[in-house]
Amino acid sequence: MGARPFLALNITALPPQLPPEISSEILRGGAEKSHEAGVVIAGGHTITDEEPKYGLVVLGFADIDKMMTKSGAKVGDALVLSKPIGFGTATTAIKQQKATLKQINEVVDWMARLNKTASEIALEFGIRGATDITGFSLLGHAHEMADTSGVGLHFNFKKIPMLSYAREFAEEWIFPGGSADNKLYFEKHVSFADNIDEASRMLLFDAQTSGGLLLSVPADKLDAFMARGEELAQPLWHIGEVVTGKGIKVK
Asked: Widest CA span of the chain, in angstroms?
């Protein structure tokens, strides 16, 4: 939404038998990404649990007059995505021990990237419509944006970026349970071109972890916006348009 984080607390649940070198690496990783985001970790809470969990409670500052919201998309805007999709199918393949080291490194590299630069570029250009792409999938979160903004969204499937091996896992139908839930709940709001097969459709419903931002960029700012992303080494993909009407079309 364009807020600037400044303070965080670690929240950890760790098994007592977990080797200290692993738990310390978890905390180190969180500290490094927090530092990259400009956040100070002020403390935290730790409990024991049989399944390891780690997260951060974050406080930040937001300028109410500049905040980006799901209701800010306007007809004529371009839809721009800041990370590829396919993280759900990839992490599920990792859990099933079906991913190679190269494939693991690709998804970890993308998931470890902050949305900080993409958000800062959006604020710089006065973008008002945005959503993150996480557990509800690209189409699920896009529906929320379309619904709250009172607009329709059109996506060009060929322009939507995906992990290099996402299609491979999708054809093996390796998806987290949340992806199937997304399809069941959101597909009534989406119409697909006939040439888009079931595996491709499912990727658009794939539940993401640490996904990117979907930004609604005014058409007259698009070229400069994309150029700014290139200047700052922030990947950006123009994947669709905001149109009159309602619902989502994928062609």
From this structure: 57
